[in-house]
Amino acid sequence: MGKKWRWGVILDAGSSGTRLHIYRWKDPEKALKSASEQDLRSLPKLMTDKGWTKKIRPGVSTFGTKAADVGPDHLQSLVEHALDIIPADKVEDTPIFLMATAGMRLLPQIQQTVLTSEICSYLQRNTRFSLPDCDMHIQVIKGETEGLYGWIATNYLLGGFDHPEKHQHGKGHHTYGFLDMGGASAQIAFAPNATEAEKHANDLKLLRLRTLDGSPVEHKVFTTTWLGFGVNQARESYVESLEEQYGTEAELPDPCLPKGLWTTPKGDPTTSVKPGNPTLVGTGLFDECLKRTYPLLGKDKPCEDHPCLLNGQHVPAIDFAVNHFVGISEYWHTTHGVFGKGDQAYDFATYQQKVKDFCEQDWEAIQSKLDGRKKNSAKNAQEACFKASWLINVLHEGIGVPRIGIENIPTANVSKSALESAKDRGFVNSFRPVDKIGDIEVSWTLGKMVLYAAGQIPPKSRDGRYPVGFGSNMHGTPPDFQFAGSSWKAINQHSNQTSDDDWDFDTEDILHKAKSNSTTGFFAFLLLFLLGLYFLRKRDRRMRLYTRAHSVFRRPRRPSSGSRKAGSSLSGFANKLFGVRPSAGTYERVMEEGAADQFELGDVDSSSDDGSSSNAHSDSSDGSGSGSGSGSGSGSSGRLGMSSGLATPAVADHHHLGLASPLDRSGLVVRTESRERLLLSPHLAAGVGRRSRAGSPTRLKSPLMSPLPEG
């Protein structure tokens, strides 16, 4: 079941853990058959489910010195979960990717190489997933790539790609910016306004997608990453700054911890100061916390390519009148975890007040309100103040997002209806943290799979087409172009079925099932396999095969009715098996019984008035009888019409058509026999021969009697 579906598996190997994501989409060849006009102009529709994800801890990077253990100790449970979801007969057609992010980027290069190699070898040895290229499927991706995938996922879910008219932010801009913050790094990706895009064209990435009808779609996107700017790495840098100021053998006043909370530099709660070990002592001064975390932005670093945002890294100027950003991961958890609930738009003034009220409480008061049923609730509470101060500084001091509720936000010339529609979705402001859009989690992994699925769509034109993927912003296919990793092959190269049901003829599937069954089952599937191959052959070849089979099965004629019935039964079976129409059988029966005065050549024209074939045994009307996976072959219908008149004794035309000798044809052999019997019985032959051969009004309908085109 479900042969119309494609599946994809991707493992997000982050710094804190590895998360499995499974996606499903309809095969493009199948989707085209029921696509609306809007569907044809849209990207493939991917689906996922809450049960199709699973996360385990710690991260893959912790296996840097023990790579041999990463498979059985880390990946196996994720693989087993995927196999519980994906149909067994689709596993070999399902690609699997493992893409590691910031945690792996911090490892030495030699450890990265050994670990990714071991992961690929383990998956190839122990699974049947499609993994043809280790370098493409198992890799440590750059932060820029992670940001670009996130940008694709965000705009895909919001509809910025498929419905640009509903997402006009002004100045012809209809896409959303993307912000992501994890444990070790932070990313930004956005499409600059037209002025900045032209000014910084060399800094942009060229992204190519493909809609369902094969049309190319291009976007020019800026993306960059700040390694070390994730919340965990930023926290380590912050503690180091406290140790530099107060020393490593003393109590370190920490304004980012609630009052009364003592922890080790690693964040473990403690109740006493141990000699020789620094201890962080919470003071609960949030304004001071903001001042302490600001220098970590690196705003004082030299900017070699203006403008710059964080750490001296170049970023084109952001036009917040048209660039509306969506923030995921820590942007969501830090604004909605401890300090708020619900899908609320971000308001700086309200949020900062909530943070201050929380962080300036005593730790005992905070503990008394914690929900003991929630895992890690105490740890999240003790880290919340630092994370909030870091997010506020990155978002407003670093990236420059206007402070909603305090600063005036630039507005673009947007129509009233578009503005109201955007308000309903909550994305009219310059920044909004999200976890899900609709019912789907916003993850960069979705962007990668959207790219892969788009690469399976055949291009509309094979002349001058460009592949799906991304690379440097230049014409053609740049040298650093990263391909989607997919191609536009049919889901089943052997299938000639065109409906959306699951009756696709798959020889590999039949043989696979045959091997797993008993000997009896094997022969049954083998018979189906041979029948399938037969019906996939061209019509003229099927006729030749039928002739040979009939000559073997056919017995000499006897006058007894019993023999005649046996021969008729066999011929009827052959008619059904090989696609011969019943008219030839009628012709034989009339002549055998000698009813010459009632003889009339059966109608052998298989076409209806409108020219369409009415043969019940012909290939499907959609032209899929060629047997190729493409489903093409409209030209075969003409050949089917020419091969239908087997009973017509037009001897002179047979060699021209490349058909077998008329004496090999069942209908013609019988006709020759019957004529000899008529000659032996003159009283039966009188006045009959001419009428039966030339006088039949239906004889002219035979396509074999039509003049053949020259050449």
Automatic annotation (TrEMBL):
GO terms for molecular function: ATP binding; GDP phosphatase activity; ribonucleoside triphosphate phosphatase activity; UDP phosphatase activity. InterPro entries: GDA1_CD39_NTPase. The chain crosses the membrane at residues 519-536. ATP binds at G183, A184, S185, A186, Q187. Residues 601-646, 681-711 are annotated as: Disordered. One of its GO terms (biological process) is CTP metabolic process. Residues 624-638 have a biased composition (Gly residues). This is Golgi apyrase.
